[in-house]
Amino acid sequence: MAGSSRLKVSKRDGGVIQVEFIDRNILDEANIQQIGEEIGSLVEAEGKPRLLISFANVDHLSSAALGTLITVNNKVRNKTGQLRLCNIDPQIYQVFVITKLNKLFEIHDTTDKAVASFR
Question: Distance (Å, rounded) from C-alpha 31 to C-alpha 7?
């Protein structure tokens, strides 16, 4: 069904795919699965994906959503691509720190810094 995407996707300079979430709360299992599938297909469509995921609109994130991010990260790495996260709310960032995911993901304060970090 057209228009049912949970994501806003745009291309940036240098072939970077920027993904933003439409939902403020990423808690619902079905939505998370859909988000994972949508991002997964973006990754599959690229030779060496350069993916930037912005959390600018996100207030709440479930642990299942974190699991989906790890899956996406693995898919990107399998294709020797690069993944960056940015604009993470301080409260959500705390969850990344507690789970040590801040060590797994490359996280930037702003979209511009994240885009500039792609090599």
Answer: 10
42-94 pLDDT per residue, tens? 999 999 999 999 999 999 999 999 999 999 999 999 999 999 999 999 999 99
Kindly list the structural domains of the chain, giving each domain's residue range(s) and its CATH number in brackets, ordered by start: 7-116 (3.30.750.24)
Q: Which two tokens stand for residue 24?
A: 């403020």
Nearest to 112 by CA among 89, 81, 86: 86
d(CA 41, CA 72): 10
How many whole angstroms separate alpha carbon 60 and alpha carbon 44?
27
| Residues sharing a CB contact under 8 Å with residue 14, sequence separation 6 or more, in sequence order | 50, 115, 118
CB contact at 8 A, 78 and 49: no
Tokens 């069904």 map to which residue? 1
